[in-house]
Amino acid sequence: MNVVGITLTLICAMIIFAGSRHAAALGVLAAVCYITQGQQINVAGFHFTAIRIALLTGIVRCFLRGELKAVQLGPIDKALIGYALSMLCIYTLRERTSEAFVYLLGCTYDILLSYFVFRSLITSLADATEYFQGVAFLILPLVALMMMESLTGNNVFRMMGGQGWDEAVFREGRARSVASFRGPHTAGIFGATLFPIFGGLWLGYGRRQVAVIGLVATVLITFATNSSGPLLAFLSGILALAFWPLKEQMQTVRRGIVVTLVTLHLTMKAPVWYLFSKMSDLTGGDGWTRSFVLDRAIYNFQEWALLGTTYTSRWLDPTSKGQLDLTDSYVATAASGGLLGLTFYILIMVRGFRSLGVAMQLTRERNGETDGLLWGLGAALFAHVVGLFSVSYFDQMHVPWWGMLAIIASVTAGVLNEPANNGVEEIEDVTQAEASTT
Fold first, then answer.
1. pTM, full prediction
2. What average pLDDT does the segment 20-27 reach?
3. Do the beta carbons of residue 62 and residue 120 sit within 8 Å?
């Protein structure tokens, strides 16, 4: 670590440890935005990046204050724990080396701490609203730095090291902003998947001034990265937000989507997953590669289904013993954790959508003004689902991803528990009234 990295890490750690729950959550996100993965220390062979130090500070704080103990495991929590453990066990069983175990142990650390820190700090719809309002202002300096990088090619975070690119890379005459991330893909996904959440704030909570700040900021982040994967996720989030007027007919919409995809699969010359190739004609980028990698993974199902596979390059050349660049997160999960790991991965998302749907139905019955953020979270989850076909979250982007899933779990659990609590209170009131009458 250099002086800048040490200073920023200490500031974030102090905010996380001593601040309010909302301030602590923002402190974790500040470490994601403003400290690169090049800032790290090595402890007994384990690489503790500044992000991991921030997460460790957060989980210690949550444990000492009893915030972690207050978390009651729900369906999303259990699916995530199953995913993390299955990936750790299957990868280690296949590779059978201490290096593989240490590597996956680090990945498990990233998953569980990213998730349970936010699960402990953001516990209700009101918490989430306040947190995302803070995010709108937190990312403003990042926006300015990324726009400067896009215009000049100068990345001020390069002094910290840790980015995948040591110098500016241009596409069509415009630099692709990286900022503190390891590539423009994850930097762009960060902004693109926040856009629907601010859209949700604008829809339902009456905090439209703050929402507009967040919307403009995330548009600029996505623009600055000049990357097709984030653009596709961004457009997916907008599409999901556009279905807001049909929120009470989503079952029909979902069935229509399934019928459309099946029809396209039967009528197209290529399989339906080659839609990514066709979309790249509009968004740019190498959509054909995404479609082809997915196609090869499906074709070689028997090779990775049980324990995953290491030598994915032989999907193209049977004599090769290397690895493909698995930009598709679902294929990368399958290759690392087999069918079990992939099943848990998808189950997390399915349970996220299901919990949001049930929570929205309950909030709408009590107060129709409160479900805007829930819809925005669902739209953001959909944007992630699409974006993960284009890029694996191989850098600090794992924190906003698992953190958002944790917020969904907390918010929906809070909403789903309210009717039960209200019912108990009503029964107690009736009992007391009858007793007084008697």
1. 0.88
2. 95
3. yes
